[in-house]
Amino acid sequence: MPDKEELERLAQLEERMIRNQQRFEQMAKKSFILNQSKQTEDVEDFELLKRVERTRQEQMENITLQRFQFTSRDFWRIVLKRNYDLLAWMLLDVSTNLFLYAVDTIKCRTQAKNKFRDISHFDLNKAQELSLYRGVQYRMAQIIFGGVIRNFFQKLRYSFDNDSYLITRILTFSIIQESVITSLLLPFEIKKLEVQLGTFKKGFNPFTRAYPLTVFPAIVRDTLFFLTHSMTYNTLLYGEYFVSSLFRQKEFIPPTVIPKGERERKYSAMLLSIAISIIVTNPFDVLISKMATQKQVYIYYIEQIIYTNPIQAFNVIRKEEGYAKLAGSAISSRFAYYALKGLIFFNYQEKVTDLCYGAFYDV
User: Fold this and answer.
1) What pLDDT is recorded for position 163?
2) Would you call 142 exposed, middle or buried from its count of C-beta atoms within 10 A (0-12, 13-18, 19+)?
3) Which of 87, 173, 208, 277 is most exposed, with minimal Cβ within 10 Å?
4) For 71, which DSSP code?
5) Hey, is 165 helix, strand or coil?
6) In degrees rounded to 5, what are phi and psi of residue 299?
7) Residue-wise DSSP of 1-38
8) Is residue 204 very low, low, confident or very high in pLDDT (cuts 50, 70, 90)?
9) Which of 191, 186, 217, 195 shows the shortest CA–CA distance to 204?
10) Measured between alpha carbons, how far is 40 from 301 in angstroms, rounded to an integer?
11) Of 291, 267, 91, 268, whose CA–CA distance to 209 is shortest?
């Protein structure tokens, strides 16, 4: 049996081992903290280097852009890189309109046809036998130029007077934007309508007659469609929260809380807002199709046109073909066109945007 001195010696040895163990644990903990601190510093240094490199690269790109070397590949690569969202939108819009162009042609021919008089030469040109893709090049040009102009206006959106109510800014911005875009792109639409009905004349001679007649109803149609669609969509989706924000000076910011079934609610709101917008604007769309495609006829041996202004055209169509022609002509084709287009954008816009972003930036 161990004596008293040996027991004391064992106790001291055990105490020394415990102190050493505690010292080792403290050293390990201190080493871990130092390593973590070192890693944090390394990450911060790496992020700083990335920011410096990004700034240097942007400066080099700015120099390239300022030289306006339109024949240089680097110039256009930088332009596309800085507008990757516009590129994604245009890629999706062009492909969608190519897919749905036949529906647009059916809509145009249905609206322009007159049962009583062949004002648009629908029967003379045998338009029902022509290809459904006639004039698609004018539609593509309209989309590309329209996308560039609309992107320019979106960048100017926040430069409007922020002291006024949101609803005032929305109305002002919509009227200015749609008036400019429609006025500039209407020649392409007129040419498209002419070709869809079987008439193909080189040059822009039809515009001297059709453009003054159709520019006002076209501006009204596009402005009403933009306003009705955006206001109805946000009202259906956000309810009182959006309506109350219209009478504030701040910009509308959607709520951060995502309700259950938001995806289904968004698609339902989109379809309903499209339907309401089409109903509101269909009479103006019919007016444009008829006035843009009308041909000169002989009345008492004098060459004249049937539709001389939007109000007179409205009354002539109402008397000859009834209110149903104005309110409901090709309305199902218009709804199918916009609903399918909305469905494609709803499902693929984010994916195409991410794809274009990844093509120019390191993800």
Assistant:
1) 67
2) buried
3) 208
4) T
5) coil
6) -120, 115
7) ---HHHHHHHHHHHHHHHHHHHHHHHHHHHHHHHHHHH
8) very low
9) 191
10) 90
11) 291
84-127 tens-digit pLDDT = 888 888 899 999 999 999 999 999 999 999 888 888 888 888 88
Q: Is the dihedral of CA 90, 92, 94, 96 positive or negative?
A: negative
d(CA 164, CA 172): 11
Look-up of token digits 């709101």: 269
Measured distance CA(134)–CA(90) in Å, rounded: 21
174-181's contacts with Cβ under 8 Å and 24+ in sequence apart are 174/223, 174/226, 174/227, 174/230, 175/223, 177/150, 177/153, 177/226, 178/219, 178/222, 178/223, 178/226, 179/219, 179/223, 180/149, 180/153, 181/146, 181/149, 181/150, 181/153, 181/222
| pLDDT number for residue 332 | 93
CB 287 within 8 A of CB 216: no
pLDDT digits (tens, 9 = 90+) for 30-72: 565 555 555 555 556 666 766 766 777 777 777 776 776 767 7
Tokens of 40: 């944090």
**DSSP calls for 77-138:** HHHHHHTHHHHHHHHHHHHHHHHHHHHHHHHHHHHH--SS--TT-TTTTTGGGS-TTTTHHH
Q: How far apart are CA 62 and CA 51, in angstroms?
A: 16
pLDDT per residue as tens digits for the range 302-329:
667 888 899 999 999 999 999 999 999 9
According to DSSP, the residues that pair with 304 across neighbouring strands are 297
User: Which tokens sit at 186?
Assistant: 């209407």
- Say which residue, 7 or 172, is predicted with more confidence: 172
